[in-house]
């Protein structure tokens, strides 16, 4: 049985861990590896290595950091096949989908290659006689990243390229369900010329997370995962004086107006609801059918859901793989059963779906539930599986009110032929990321990613300009040349 170790100070290390967790192949249902679960002493070792490395990396030149990022970007391109296979085998998603997350994550590295521009400060000449003012930003020190299972490479890439390019050192605690991609990333950074100790990976569970949240030498924590854990991480880490960005769960609504091209909208709803078996923070889990769009939309969605090819991730003909664990499969099946028991109409029921030759895999087929209402658990809870619920409303105003009353605010989309409706929607909806005829877009790396309400705890979105701000602190310097006499009155510009 393969053991997945930590990566500390430039080398694979078992450190002091004795506890382990299973890593499955979700397509076969078999355990394929065990991953070490760090003890607080392992976290201490990693943070000590990162603290030591910060002494020189924090002073490295912008050119040196950019050079590492350019080399790392090339290695991500060269190792795309290998990374995609690793992700697919531990997560279950189809290989092309895994490639997609590598490409979207790589865009953040490309942004970090331009760090010299992103870190430029400002300068004001002659604010007073012989006095100038400038500002500049400095790294925080050791920062930690705690990431979810559903994007094992893209979500960590939202964090560490920006953190490292701004001069910090990093300790990553990836999801214990699919940790191997992070290990390869650590090796690629080493090959790209990143000094030992600048990027470390500590595998683990709550014990490792708690040790990072409490550690006095961790200056900031980036978290992406479910909302209850995001709230916990935000509360605990801010209580110990750390800067925190904490992105949580989602319940993303896609509104379909009667004037939309319904075939086009249904195509996108199907891909966004069932792609990656619905395990995306930007998945569409609720379709909001406005007016008389409902009947025809549900008919087309039914046809398309039945056409989705469910199979192992390494089969090029599969559209959708299994979910990540047996517990995730059980949760999805329960959610569909609960929705039906509470009055939803099961237009397509994926609960009994099996894949020939993979009977023990964690497969569940697409489910389409019509006539979902806000009181149902299937509406209120994040199912995080291939389940699309349809809520019917009369007007676009009702659709907006529905979305605004939902506690989550990660992403939303509108499908319409009306620019006026789209403009009203984007201005009135209380959601951080919006698609117009685009199903829940992940913003490009030179914008920042972040939801509203329970989808983002605190006020720090991730990557892009917000990432640069998060991982640095500003200094403002006021300089006078030559010397003049001191005055006892409070200095003002003269
Ligand atoms: P999760 O919250 O269970 O785990 C996330 C991380 O927290 C993991 O590293 C895990 O080890 C750790 N963790 C889990 N339980 C903990 C506890 N009790 N104490 C301390 N740490 C703990 O999330 P997941 O199941 O891995 O991922 C799916 C969730 O992530 C979904 O809710 C999804 O919407 C969300 N997500 C959000 C975004 C976003 O950008 N907003 C992106 C991806 C995923």
Q: Would you kindly provide a written description of the structure presented here, covering whatever features stand out?
A:
With 494 residues, the protein is α/β, with parallel strands linked by helices. It has two domains: 2-248 and 455-477, 3-Layer(aba) Sandwich (Aldehyde Dehydrogenase, Chain A, domain 1), CATH 3.40.605; 252-436, 3-Layer(aba) Sandwich (Aldehyde Dehydrogenase, Chain A, domain 2), CATH 3.40.309.10. The chain has 16 helices and 23 strands. A seven-stranded mixed β-sheet has the order 15-16-17-14-13-19-20, with helices on both faces. A six-stranded mixed β-sheet has the order 10-9-8-11-12-22, sandwiched between helices. The longest helix has 19 residues, at 95-113. The site of nicotinamide-adenine-dinucleotide has 28 residues, from helix 8 and helix 9. Residues 146-151, 155, 173, 175-176, 205-206, 209, 224-226, 229, 232, 247-250, 281, 382, 384, 410, 451, 455 line the site of nicotinamide-adenine-dinucleotide.
Task: List low-pLDDT spans.
Answer: none
CATH class of the largest domain: Alpha Beta
Q: CATH superfamily of the largest domain, please?
A: Aldehyde Dehydrogenase, Chain A, domain 1
Number of domains: 2
**Overall pLDDT metric:** 97
Instruction: Please count the helical segments.
Output: 16
Number of strands: 23
- As a percent range, the share of helical residues equals 25-40%
The biggest beta sheet reads: 7 strands, mixed
Shape: globular
CATH architecture of the largest domain: 3-Layer(aba) Sandwich
Q: Which distinct ligands sit in these coordinates?
A: nicotinamide-adenine-dinucleotide
CATH-defined fold name of the largest domain:
Aldehyde Dehydrogenase, Chain A, domain 1
Strand content: 15-25%
- For the termini, the CA-CA separation is 74 Å
Order of strands, main sheet, comes to 15-16-17-14-13-19-20
